[in-house]
Protein: Glutamate-1-semialdehyde 2,1-aminomutase
Organism: Luteimonas kalidii
Amino acid sequence: MNHDHSHALFQRARARLPGGVNSPVRAFKSVGGEPFFVARADGPYLYDVDGNRYVDYVGSWGPMIVGHNHPHVREAVQRAIGDGLSFGAPCAAEVTMAETLARLVPSCEMVRMVNSGTEATLSAIRLARGATGRSRIVKFEGCYHGHGDSFLVKAGSGALTFGVPTSPGVPKALADLTLTLPYNDFDAASALFDTAGGDIAALIIEPVVGNANCLPPRDGYLRHLRELCTRHGTLLIFDEVMTGFRVALGGAQARYGVTPDLSTFGKIIGGGMPVGAYGGRRELMEQVAPSGPVYQAGTLSGNPVAMAAGLAMLELVSEPGFHARLEATTHALCDGLEAAAREAGMAFTTTRVGAMFGLFFTTETIVDTYAQAVACDTAAFNRFFHAMLARGVFLAPSAFEAGFVSSAHDEGVVDATLAAAREAFRSLADDHTG
Ligand code: KE4
């Protein structure tokens, strides 16, 4: 594959953008090499500036669940653009979005639109602290909730990838208010609440972890956290920025039957445009300005073009059987990858929840803890990443990210992916045997 134009662009980018990117995980720092620059995207494919085509399993990190450039989304945006880009005043589309989210996620009687997942989670935490009068929060090692100061403590995603789970610049006084727990550890959660439960404003969790690779919750774990929070007056926050509308139409809370007090969203609800949201019970949300004292605002919140994109995508994901078909695609992909690895004699396994999945180079058959994820052979993953990229398949450029399928990933696309994987695993095995 030729990458001359991407290389030239990356040289220019590094002169004016930190690391040459506008978001760290795009830089390929953990997998090595240089990122390709995208010229356009369509269906399951990305096309780079050198004319190379890739099957895309990143999907803009989750939003592109109906594939790129879907006509229903594109036409909705084109219509909205014709009426103007931004008003700074209420418009009907943001009311329709709020009503749609409340209908699809019944725990969200009210919502507030923001412009990113980060804004959604930091706003939800501020609301929880304001509503409870408490300051401490609990998060989980390896979970990533955006780059808000309170969350950059043992964080996942890029923070974990680059080995800086607790970022410089976060005052110790603030970091000390963030308590961390190991994911899927029932006893550790009980012990923490026994000692500090009365001081904890909120527990925020990715109900399915997607930022330390993909780690599903153990049976009963989310319910255990729900019971602990209820008992101690702590607000349970499901960060569904990634899982929302992906692991089920109603998100992880619908899939696992556990109702949080607050939920955060992003990605899919923007249809590819910058959107986030947080929501919950009316008596909580009415404490947000201007109906209540907890301040939060945003120039472009509820932007009419972004609302049009998100509403069009939510219409598509609401079609009967959408998530069942996507889950079947995920299983076909992951079963095929495991079979290809076995044929090549590689120690490899996968996790899959709805339309998201995780790839692990490990002898473990079940991976559902942060410790297991970080113990995997990341060097092998990095070699696999490049072996697949060279064969036209773009996986998440980090061993600590989840993968995503879309409704555009049809049987032919999955078969082509698995053909590339059989070659890639064989090349790894050949390298391994020297
Ligand atoms: P944004 O601020 O990036 O829109 O959302 C932050 C966020 C919050 N919560 C969860 C569960 C998330 O996964 C994210 C962002 N996800 C990463 C992917 N691991 C975004 C990719 C990036 O940082 O470039």
Observations:
- The CA atoms of residues 159 and 165 lie 5 Å apart.
- The longest helix spans residues 411-433.
